[in-house]
Amino acid sequence: MLSFPLYTMILPILSFPDPRLNTVAKPVAEVDQRIATLIADMLETMYEAKGIGLAATQVNVHERLVVIDVSDERDQPLVLINPEITWYSPEKHIGEEGCLSVPEIYDKVERAVAVKVTYLDAKGKPQQLEAEEMLAVCVQHELDHLLGKVFVEYLSKLKFNRIKTKMLKIKREDEKDAEYDKLSRPKM
Ligand code: NI
Questions:
Q1: Which CATH class for the 19-177 domain?
Q2: How far is the CA of 54 from the centre of ligand 1 (A)?
């Protein structure tokens, strides 16, 4: 019997172009207490960051697990363990996407309008899902993360490089700020 942990943790989210985001995730071997804790922490992290989806890859756990909530009320969490897309609709749609690992960057990506997915739920029970529209896009985006792929890789080389440069600059500035804080803070 898996119990929901009493305390949850906000996990640090890896930022593009962190090479760990390019890791291919392995299947979850067993839906045990460790996975239950990870699910609770990932949901907390996703809600806190105001995201609609989060893949384990983004919190540096390289196992096939994603959490999603596309509801307006933020009260319909969906947990997909070892998800596999078994069908893509031939109909495609170009929509704007963003990612918690690429803050403040939004761009157009072409995706299937609908997909069918098989997965294990949070209790380890096999399930199937037919997703459409926003949910379908989110499932495709999150499952890409598990394959080590970030959505900006679908953009032109020019855009990709521009985003990469911008993100590296932000990272350098953050590191400089952190260094300054360390130096100027009294140590007792
Ligand atoms: Ni993402």
A1: alpha beta
A2: 6
Give 187 Cα–ligand 1 centroid separation in angstroms.
38
Identify whether 84 is a catalytic site residue.
no
- Ligand 1 is a single-atom ion; what residues have CB below 5 A from it? 99
The residue to which tokens 């996990």 are assigned: 11
Section 22-35 average pLDDT: 97
Quick one: average pLDDT of 20-34?
A: 97
Span from the CA of 141 to the centroid of ligand 1 (angstroms): 6
Tell me how far apart the alpha carbons of residues 171 and 165 are, in angstroms, rounded to a whole number.
10
Between the CA of 35 and the centroid of ligand 1 the distance, in Å, is: 20
Main-chain dihedrals φ then ψ at residue 34, nearest 5 degrees: -60, -45
SS3 25: coil
> Side chain identity at 184, as an amino acid letter?
S
Cis peptide before 17 (omega within 30 of 0): yes
* Confidence class for position 100, pLDDT limits 50, 70, 90: very high
Integer Cα distance of 15 and 20 in angstroms: 9
| From 44, 63, 97, 142, the catalytic residue | 142
pLDDT in tens, 38-73: 999 999 999 999 999 999 999 999 999 999 999 999
Structure tokens of 111? 């995706």
Cα(154) to centroid(ligand 1), Å: 13
Predicted model pTM: 0.93
